[in-house]
From TrEMBL:
GO terms for molecular function: hydrolase activity. Pfam families: YdjM. This is Metal-dependent hydrolase. Keywords: Hydrolase, Membrane, Transmembrane, Transmembrane helix. The chain crosses the membrane at residues 32-49, 97-116, 122-142, 149-166, 243-262. The keyword Transmembrane applies. It comes from the Bacteria. InterPro entries: YdjM-like (IPR007404).
Amino acid sequence: MMGPAHSLSGAAAWLGVGAATAAAGHPMPWPVLVVGALICAGAALAPDLDHKSATISRAFGPVSKTLCEIVDKLSYAVYKATKTRADARRSGGHRTLTHTWVWAVLCGAGASALAITGGRWAVLGILFVHLVLAVEGLLWRAARMSSDVLVWLLGATSAWILAGVLDKPGNGADWLFTAPGQEYLWLGLPIVLGALVHDIGDALTVSGCPVLWPIPVAGKRWYPVGPPKGMRFRAGSWVELKVLMPAFMLLGGVGGAAALNFI
């Protein structure tokens, strides 16, 4: 799928989690719902860091472009080192390592560890990166018409404001993990969810997605998981633009309303 659809699906997924926790009698504080949805929307773009034309690879200028080259080479090296004879030959690392559940879990765990050990500046950094990506994904038309600096300023300002809101007692810094020193441990959860939602979205497309790696399927470690061929679509096709994106917006709206006990 394309960036906007990925971001919408990520936000909708976190709002759905919020609705589920509310139904279970443990509603999220509204700042956790909002911040989590934005982080998840940004994280849903992150697996495409292995592709030089992806939104995330362009979002932070030379820094993200350089990181993209490193991740692509790393992904390709891991693919070559772990593929079986049944796996196809490849010339690059796109849709390999970064499109697996292992990568999603590692990114989420790393973010959580950084948040609880790095203090406020680490939390601000995590929020900044994912809010910039959320702007690039959810407001992609406006972002492309603006300069990168303006998008970065919006991300930095939003990160500062939202971190201040979360820091207030009862607003969710210690949501889910309440022991002393575990504030913001939950930040890794929307990152894991966003990456997995991205992988599921890509699995619906023609190429499929090796989300189960390194678990072998049909003799392949990089088996392209997906529905039957006739049910798949091409990225950017009318199915994505006219069916899936409106569905994500509707589901996200319903999920958000349910999470806030409006319905």
